[in-house]
Structures are given as C-alpha cells and as structure tokens.
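Posting here for the record, re: magnesium ion.
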Amino acid sequence: MALPGVTSEASSQGDQVVAGASPNRAVFLDRDGVINQPTIRNGKSYPPDRVEDFQLIDGVAEACTLLKEAGFQLVVVTNQPDVRTGKQTATNVEAMHARLRDLLPLDDILACFHVDADDCSCRKPKPGMLLQAAEQHHIDLTRSYMVGDRWRDILAGQRAGCACYFVDYDYKEARPEGAYRTVDDLYQAARQITAGHPLEHR
Ligand SMILES: [Mg+2]
Ligand SMILES: [Zn+2]
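Prediction output follows.
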C-alpha cells in the first residue's frame, strides 16, 4: 500500500465531473472506535494489534448498508502512525483492511502511516485524505459527513467542509471544538444522516 498523498492537479485532467451532473456524497469513516472496537488503555484509544483482535462494533454493518442504500460513498480515513514508529507492520494493517473490505461495502480505505513530525498532508487533523478521496471519487465535500471518535477526526472533517459526527467515548484527551454533533455510535449517525438531518453542525 503506497502512502497516500494528495493527488496532483495534472493527474486529474480529463477526469472531471460533467457540468450539471450531481457529484457524489460520502460519509468518511474513522476506523478505530468507529468501525472496530478500539483497545482502551488508561482511558485512551489504541488500534488492535492483530487481525484476530479486529472486531466490528455492533451495528456497523447495518449502518453501512443504510448509508449505501441512501447513495453515499463510504470512505475510511485512518491514521496508523504505529507503522511509522515500528510498533505495527504495514502488512498487518493491510490484512485488517482486506478483512474490512470483505465485511463492509466500502468504496475506499485511505491510511496515513506517518507521525506529526513527518509533516505529511494526510495525517488527521489535516484534511488531505478527505481531499484526495474527494478528487478521486468526485465527492462534494460540502454535502458529505465525517464520523470520528477523536478531535483529530472532527477537525479534519471541518477543514474539508464536511458536517461532523463525534462518537464520544469520553477519552482522557482534548475534545473537539467548533461545530459537530455527538452520537453514541456509527449506527446512530447513519440513522440521522439518512433521515435527512440538516447539515447545520459544521
Ligand atoms: Mg478513532
Ligand atoms: Zn500521512
């Protein structure tokens, strides 16, 4: 898996949305704590170490089905800095993502393997992964959503122009700022999104 970067303008030439056509809408999904159970240590969230430990949260498959039936693209955007620091292998992460693709109707999975010091454009709270997916999949970000369980997810979504849902586990870390709506889980977010909830929380 290549490290994602923002696609250059040149590569998108000749691949533009036809004028008047409706661009796609998407729901961007954080991975750990939104799709799969996070490992909690000392009140903080960590990704599972092994593919065998990878467990979907209740209601996630139903939520994805609801959103797909409503016409949304589903794009996972996940920070996996343990690859950069050597605590995890890219092979393991790829195996988890292959499993996710088998289990859920996902349109894409973008992963950032960097740490803050790398100053990449993809690591949330930067919106790089959302912007790259928007370009590749012709997504109208202003009619799209981000669902995450940490402030970095919410800020990335806000910066991309999406309406944001925060799955609040009351982690011992900074909370998101600005406009967002709090939900118990992805299923609750999906119910609200597909009910045509107004996009005022951004
Ligand atoms: Mg998370
Ligand atoms: Zn990155």
